[in-house]
Design a protein that fits this description.
This protein has 760 residues and is an alpha/beta fold. It has 27 helices and 17 strands. About 1% of the residues have low confidence.
Length: 760
């Protein structure tokens, strides 16, 4: 008996030792990861920081900042907490900023002391980031250097659950080779990188393919680096699960299996859907998950969205419940600790309720679905913010609403809310909105937005400028006022030409829901302190962005005058206003060429850089071009210009020629005394169809030719001084504003369908 007790005591002691050793090793690894991040972000100042990891002290993530001796001590329960502490210190003590649109890391020579310990914690277990679309609208051409920066940025903004889709091509490729597909057939199934997001969302296949094997191999390497770094920092990536999306051609390989075509989607032929109740589902799904594990490991959260923006073959509670059970069983049999992450976008109650509550996380992308779905019936929910659609760059977003703390409002109303999320379809625009959005999970209540904006201007530009502070207030009352949230307003520049331009894509219509004079005033205030702020990279981005918005706003009024002149058969007025409009496009192109963020040439060059041969480079350029122009389709485009971008190169090469052709056609009618009418033309998504008449049909042929033309990128990619060119354009268009805005009234915006849920 004594021997037995002694043996048990030894075993217990050994377990405790192993457990303590494991915890100690993790703490050591996390400390090293935190220190490495600090060295990457502020290498010259890293020696002034001390990292302290305390993983066992609290259940919720927290950080503390204090000064001990000559060191700034950053304490947290994991590397993300420490990184968030670093970001807070940089923002609120050093008055610095890191953003997707320029960094201000002009650090003081002596780091400021933290006289009173700072402590911040968050009630949100999960802080999610990214929409599937982000990976195609912004990230398809990113290399490791760019990804490394983004991962650090996420950590510094407390993100611990990012979506991970890089490298999925290899998972599919290997899985299909196991299921009777040849190399060529598997690669033909895979869409181009610019459209891969919608393949992973089960909406299309093959477009922009066949995918080069070189792309697949390179992105295995890249994906492993991304996952490893995210895990090193303590993140839990959301990986791809399996809900039955398959190649249409799988039916030929398994004719007895229940495989059907989904309804067509936005001009694309319906995708293949393997019925989750079919025996093949478990086999193929298991193979998919195993291949994912072999390549990248698995980390416990799997995304699966059955019938996303589509329809089930049988819309009964019984069938949908069976679907939910089959998917859940697949994931759970593969990983007993698994949680299923499901978007609320195309949520179906019977599927949800087939899953135990503790094994499902609902991602409410725009933070709205929970209201109409009875609080998601008590299931854990991540309440999100969906600010950007399509990668469009219009300045917009309700900053007052954001500052009211929608996350906390949701948490108070629904106790099942367990996380916050940023689910924008694209990034690298509207830096002020994202700076606040990333920060909000740290706040327990409302933020005083006017005061916050003044501090924002100081740290963004690296100097105190009352003029810049006032510029932010002008923008708050203008493009960032209430009513500007959600879908971006259309761009007259990027709109397919028409007398009565309704919208620039299947998105919100034209109109300016604020006084455009506020944008003019903001730009003037920014330029006023150019000598003081000119060395700030974020400042240089902002003066270009605000000037761009000022000019595109004015473009709406200029074209309206041109259209009115045509209808009135006033040749002189038509010539004046149409010429001014076309010149405005030339000017915007010149303006935007000063910055890499507004650059079609950079986009194309980055896409081509991933190809090994000229054929591969041309193929990737085609994919990159189509996304931001015609968007794509298996026939004629349906959602063309959905991903419009006011980008240099795209304006000069695509939008300007379209408008030139249109005005030339109108001029011909004026010269010949003939009429032109848009009454009764066939519509698609709220504007004239791709081939609505002879003019649009010819224009469509030209657009398709543009997409197919390789080597469009100009060099040098970036050219000109931001402040000089912005100042010159400001002077020119301020003078024109006196003429065009004499009788202007802000538009009362009433939208119908915006088609952002493309299943509408």
């Amino acid at each position: 008996m004594r021997i037995h007790f002694r043996f048990c005591a030894i075993i217990i002691a050994l377990c405790l030792f192993i457990g303590n050793t494991g915890a100690a090793n993790q703490e050591k690894e996390w400390k090293a990861a935190s220190e490495a991040l600090i060295k990457r972000v502020v290498p010259e100042y890293a020696k002034h920081f001390k990292v302290c990891i305390r993983p066992e002290t609290v259940k919720k993530d927290y950080f503390e900042i204090e000064t001990k001796g000559k060191k700034i001590v950053l304490t947290g329960n994991n590397p993300i907490s420490v990184a968030s502490a670093l970001n807070y210190y940089l923002k609120y003590y050093c008055h610095c900023q890191i953003s997707s649109n320029g960094d201000n890391l002009n650090m003081p020579d002596v780091l400021p002391l933290v006289t009173e310990k700072v402590r911040k914690d968050t009630p949100y277990t999960y802080r999610a980031c990214f929409n599937y679309c982000t990976f195609s609208y912004t990230m398809p051409w990113w290399n490791w250097e760019r990804w490394q920066r983004e991962i650090d940025f996420m950590a510094m903004n407390s993100i611990n659950m990012p979506l991970a889709t890089v490298g999925l091509e290899a998972v599919w490729y290997n899985t299909l080779l196991k299921h009777r597909f040849t190399d060529e057939e598997a690669r033909r199934f895979l869409a181009g990188p610019g459209h891969a997001a919608w393949q992973w969302m089960q909406n299309l296949q093959s477009y922009g393919g066949p995918l080069p094997k070189s792309w697949i191999d390179k992105h295995i390497i890249l994906a492993k680096k991304i996952i490893d770094r995210e895990r090193e920092l303590g993140m839990t990536p959301i990986q791809q699960g399996f809900s039955g999306y398959v190649p249409r051609e799988l039916k030929d390989k398994y004719p007895e299996a229940k495989i059907r075509l989904q309804p067509g989607w936005c001009g694309f032929k319906g995708a293949g859907q393997l019925d989750p109740t079919d025996a093949l589902f478990a086999t193929l799904g298991r193979d998919f998950l195993e291949e994912e594990k072999k390549l990248y490991g698995t980390y416990g959260i799997y995304a699966a969205d059955p019938f996303h923006e589509s329809a089930p073959p049988v819309n009964t509670p019984e069938y949908l419940s069976a679907v939910g059970h089959a998917i859940y069983k697949l994931i759970k049999d593969f990983d007993p600790k698994a949680k299923w992450a499901m978007q609320a976008w195309s949520l179906r109650e019977p599927i949800v309720k087939a899953v135990p509550q503790n094994d499902l996380i609902i991602l409410d992308l725009n933070g709205e679905k929970i209201k109409g779905r009875k609080g998601f019936w008590g299931y854990p929910a991540v309440e999100g913010n969906l600010h950007n659609f399509g990668g469009r760059i219009n300045m917009h977003g309700d900053l007052r609403l954001l500052a009211s703390n929608q996350y906390m409002t949701a948490l108070k109303q629904y106790p099942n809310v367990c996380g916050s999320g940023l689910f924008m379809e694209a990034i690298e625009q509207n830096p002020v909105y994202y700076d606040l959005a990333f920060e909000m999970p740290l706040h327990k209540g409302e933020v005083a937005i006017e005061e916050w904006l003044k501090q924002y201007a100081n740290r963004r530009y690296g100097a105190v400028s009352p003029s810049a502070q006032q510029a932010m207030i002008c923008l708050l009352e203008g493009p960032y006022r209430p009513g500007t949230n959600g879908t971006e307003r259309s761009s007259i520049i990027a709109a397919r030409p028409a007398l009565n331009v309704k919208k620039s894509g299947p998105n919100a219509g034209l109109g300016i829901p604020y006084s455009p004079l506020l944008v003019i005033q903001a730009e003037g205030l920014l330029l006023k302190d150019a000598d003081k702020l000119k060395n700030s990279e974020p400042y240089r981005f902002d003066v270009i962005d605000v000037q761009r918005q000022m000019m595109t706003n004015m473009g709406q009024v200029i074209h309206k005058r041109a259209a009115e002149a045509f209808l009135n058969r006033d040749k002189e007025a038509f010539a004046l206003h149409s010429k001014r409009f076309l010149q405005m496009l030339e000017d915007v192109d010149e303006l935007l060429r000063t910055r890499p963020e507004f650059n079609f040439d950079r986009w194309l060059t980055s896409a081509r850089s991933w190809g090994d041969t000229e054929e591969e480079k041309n193929q990737l350029e085609y994919d990159a071009t189509s996304l931001v122009t015609i968007w794509g389709a298996d026939g004629d485009p349906s959602i063309f210009d959905y991903s419009w971008r006011e980008w240099t190169g795209l304006i000069k090469g695509y939008y300007l020629p379209r408008w030139t052709k249109f005005y030339a056609m109108l001029q011909e009618h004026l010269d010949n005394g003939t009429t032109y009418s848009e009454e009764g033309l066939r519509q698609t998504h709220g504007r004239e169809a791709f081939r609505a008449n002879d003019f649009y049909s010819k224009l469509g042929d030209w657009e398709l030719q543009f997409v197919s033309t390789p080597n469009k990128a100009r060099t040098p990619i970036v050219q000109g001084d931001e402040i000089e060119i912005a100042g010159r354009m400001y002077k020119k268009y301020t003078a024109l504003a006196k003429e065009y805005y004499q009788d202007f009234k802000a538009d009362a915006i009433k939208d119908g369908k915006t088609y952002e849920n493309l299943g509408e």
